[in-house]
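Support request, please re-run this one:
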Amino acid sequence: MDLEAVRTFVAVVEAGQFQKAAIDLSVTQQAVSKRIATLERDLCVRLFTRTQRGAELTIDGQAFLPRARELLRVAERALASVHPGSRPLRVDVLNSRGAASGLMRGFHRAHPEIDLDVVMLFEIETAVTAIRSGAIDASFRAVAAPGRPLPEDIESVRVLDEPLQLLTGPAHALAGARSVTVAQLAGHRIWMPGIVPGTEWAAYYDDLVAEFGLTIEATGPNFGSDALLDTIADTPTLATFMGEHTRLIWPAGHGLRRIPVTDPMPVYPHSLLWHRDNPHPALATLRAHLAATVAGHDAAGSWTPDWAAPH
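Re-run finished. Output below.
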């Protein structure tokens, strides 16, 4: 159905005359008459009768009027759902407990007037494709891992260097340490079943292992963070890495320890990705918020892979 014809029909009803409706719509009276005639032909009914007082609705016109107004309301909602500034800002984060989720919660507290849709995509290729298609406005990722250059139309800025921490159970050999150096981790089993080959975080840990000779095991199914914490708490020979900003909750009896890693401090380089032509006004607000509120770390005392995007 031609929405312009439906809009013209409603305008004639509200104006009471074809001529007045033409003025309201900034078109000619002939255009108004033509649109109404086309609509009547499509509906196979007469919508108006012309009288000395103007245009009056027929019984069919009266029946169609509320449906016509609803059609226009639906069309307006459809446009608003995709129009930048009217629809929510759509941002991809890797998981609900990670640093990126925390950054978006902080952004929401600072700008509650901005509608947000937070989604969780898995692979960076999926996120980049969604950015380029307009399905999402931005994504938090580590870029650019080896063999994964970003397309030229994708912009990125490093927004957070997140220190890694060692997570152990109470009986682990390092459980009592206030901090550990990377060298002290050599020979200890670090279990990370969530590492997926081919992802940017897998590339990060591959380089960490190659640089410092660590032992990281990704064996076994990934049953989620709760199962990981249970295993770490009960196994004195296992530890795992967690980002400093990762939110974790465990039973009091687990007695888990979060221990800073130093000399150097491994940091995970979170970057924000977006399409350079994205017009959503809230995207600029998000970028400004991150630039103003996220504190960096001393690069001289930290480690990131050589491929990490510059800060």
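Residues 170 and 255 are 5 Å apart (CA to CA). The domain at 89-303 is CATH 3.40.190.290 (D-Maltodextrin-Binding Protein; domain 2).
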